[in-house]
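ok posting inputs for the iron/sulfur cluster job
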Amino acid sequence: MLLEVENLVTRFYTSEGVVHAVNGVSYNIDHGETLAIVGESGCGKSVSVRSIMRLIPQPPGKIESGRVMFKGRDLLGLNDEQIRKVRGNEIAMIFQDPMTSLNPVLTIERQITEALEQHWKMSGAAATQRAAELLEMVSIPNARARLKDYPYQFSGGMRQRAMVAMALACEPDLLIADEPTTALDVTIQSQIVNLVRRLQQQTNMAIIWITHDLGVVARLAQRVMVMYAGYVIEAAPVKELYGNPRHPYTLGLLGSLPRLDAPPNTRLFSIPGQPPDQVALPEGCPFAPRCHMVIERCLHEMPPEEPVSEHHHVACWRKDDVGNGGPRVRQS
Amino acid sequence: MSGNHKPKVLLSVQNLKKYFPIRQGMVIRRHVGDVKAVDDVSFDIYEGETLGLVGESGCGKTTVGRTLLRLYEPTGGKVFFDGQDITRLSPSEMRAARRKMQMIFQDPYASLNPRMTVGNIISEPMLYHRIVSRADRDERVRELLEMVGLRAYFAKRYPHEFSGGQRQRIGIARSLALEPSFIVCDEPISALDVSIQAQIVNLLEELQDTLGLTYLFIAHDLSMVRHISDRIAVMYLGKIVELTDRNELYDNPLHPYTKALLSAVPIPDPVIEEQREIIELEGDVPSPSNPPKGCNFNTRCPLAQPHCFEAEPPLVEVSPGHHVACHLVEPTETA
Ligand SMILES: Nc1ncnc2c1ncn2[C@@H]1O[C@H](COP(=O)(O)OP(=O)(O)OP(=O)(O)O)[C@@H](O)[C@H]1O
Ligand SMILES: Nc1ncnc2c1ncn2[C@@H]1O[C@H](COP(=O)(O)OP(=O)(O)OP(=O)(O)O)[C@@H](O)[C@H]1O
Ligand code: SF4
Ligand SMILES: [Mg+2]
Ligand SMILES: [Mg+2]
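and the output
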C-alpha cells in the first residue's frame, strides 16, 4: 500500500468555537489507483488531504490524532525539513485556482525549472529542455515559445495544464488534485481529466481526486469515498457505489441528479435541509436531521463505519435496509 | 410544451447585438475595438415554457439575459415582449414593463443587500412600484416567503444568517414580488451544493406550474438544463449555434460544437462512462474582441472545411423546430 491514513482527526480552534473538520477518517490508496473524495462544501475533503501533507495552518488548525503511513513512514512524525522534501517530490498537489500556486511575476519556464533544480539538481539548457517537454506533454501548443510567458498570458485551462506540468515535473508517486477542474469549462475540464488519466497510465502514479461532481467521479475514479460533516459515511469501488449505494445520503445524492433517461416533468429527488454546522455537530449520526430513514438510535449514537461487502464500507445504522427492501428513493 | 395548439410567443428576440467598446489611452479614450459579447442572436420564447441557454464561460449568456431586459442597452436588434418592442420604450415606460420581467442571479451572496432585513429586501420592489400598501406589506412578504419554502418569521432576519440555498430562495421571493410573467434565471444553482440544487430546481418548476411563469434558464450544467428546459439554445462566442427541442438536442445533436460539448459532460454513471466515446476539442475559445473570420467555431472544429474559414454559416431550420448554424449540416426536407 502506498498510503494508509488511519483515524485522522483535525480541528480548528476559532473564535466561534471548535470546528470539527475531520472526525476520524481512514482511507488508503495504492500505486496506479485513483480514489475520488466527494461531498458537499465544508464537509472536510480538503482538510482531510491537506492534513496528510501537513498543510494545515496551525493555529487555528490542529491535527489531533491519526497515522499517515506513506511508503512505510508516518508523515505526521516527520520534521518540517523532511516533510518539505516529501511535498512536491513524492506527493504533488494541484488546486482549484492555479493562480494561487503559480507565481505571477515569474515566467512559466522559471517556475518549472525551479522545481527541476530543487528535486533533480537539473539546470541550464537541460532544465529548459525538460520544461519544454513537460509543457508539450500537457498539450500546450508551441511549448518552447510559451515557456517565456507569464501566467497572466495563459488562459484558465492553459494555467491548469501548466500546474499539472509542474506537479508532474518530479514524477510524484501520489498526485492530489483538489477540485482542479471546478472553475473550468466542460470542454476544458474534459481535456484536463483525459490528460491526467493518460499521464497516470505512463507513470503509474496514484491519484486522489477531490470533487463534488459525481459525473467526473464516474469518469475517472476506481474507488470513491463519500464524506459528510467530517465523516466518511460510505466508501466503495465506483460501480458498486453508483449501482448499490447503501447510505441514505449517497442514495439521496445520486437521486437528486437529473438523469438522462428520466421521462420529462419528473421532479428531482431532493434531500431536505442542509448540512450541519461543524461547530455544533448533532449528537449521533450527523445526517439524522435530514434522513428519511432515521430511527431513535440514530439520534444518540454515531454509527461506526462497517463493511457491507469486502470493499464496501458504510456508516449507517440502517445500512442493511437501504436499497434492500427498505424505503427507497423514488425511482425517476 | 406538447399538444396541437400553437403556443403563444411571449418574448421574441430579433438580431440582438451587444458590443462592449474597448477603449485605450489615458487622456483621450480612443475606441479601438469591440467585445462582441452578443452578435446577432434571434430566438422566441413561448408562453409557459423554459428555454435553456447553455455555453461555455464568456460566450455571452448573461449578456443575452441582461440585454433582453434592457439592463444593458442593446447595440442593435429588437426585443418584443407580449407584442411590444421594448427596445423603443422610454426609461419610465421600461420601468413599468420590467415589472413583468425579472431576473434571478447566480450569486445568492452578492445579490442581496447585507444591511436590509429579508422582509425589506422582498418588499422594496413592491413599494417602489406601489403595488402594495404599507399595511398589506407584511402579509404579502409572509405569503412570498412561504411560497418559496421559507418560514414567515425569517422576514426579520438579515441575509448573512442564511445558507446559500436559503439566500437563493430569498432572491426568488424578491423576483416574484411583482408577479412577473417572465424570469431570466442566470445560473441560479451553480453556486449551490448538489443536494441543494435539486431543492431549488424543484421550487422553480413548482412555481412555474402554479403561476404559469416563463423562464429563460441560463446554465453551463447541461444535465440540469436538459431536466428543466423544454427547448435549448447552445451559444458559442456570441452566437447561437443550435436551437431545438431538449430531447432532439440530446438524441440528435447536429452542430459539431454541441456534439463535443455533450460528450465532454461526464455522466454520473461509471458503466456508461466506461464505454463512452469522448470528442476532445483542442485549444481554447477565441477572444470575442477578435472572433475568427467565417464560422466562429472554425479554430476548434474537427470537421472544418476551407469554406468555413470564408463565410459565416447562418442559423437555419434544418428540420421542423431544429435550428443549426453549420455549413456541413444540410436541411433534411425543403420547407
Ligand atoms: N483555516 C481554517 N480555519 C477555520 N476553519 C477552517 C479552516 N479551514 C477549513 N476550515 C473548516 O473546516 C471544515 C472543512 O473544510 P474543507 O476545506 O476541508 O471543506 P471541503 O470539503 O474541502 O469544502 P469545499 O468543497 O468547499 O472545498 C469547514 O467547516 C471549514 O469551514
Ligand atoms: N460590462 C462589460 N464590459 C465589457 N465586457 C463585458 C461586460 N460584460 C461582459 N463582457 C464580456 O462579454 C463576453 C460575454 O460575457 P458574459 O458574461 O455574457 O458571458 P457568460 O456566457 O455569461 O459567461 P459565464 O458562464 O462565465 O457567466 C465576455 O467576453 C465578457 O468578458
Ligand atoms: S444512521 Fe440513521 S440517521 Fe444516519 S443515515 Fe443511517 S438511518 Fe439515517
Ligand atoms: Mg475544498
Ligand atoms: Mg454569466
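notes: Chain B has one domain: 9-324. Chain B touches chain A at residues 56-57, 163, 165-166, 193-199, 201-202, 205, 220, 222-224, 226-228, 246-247, 250, 260-261, 263-273, 278, 280-285 (CB under 8 Å).
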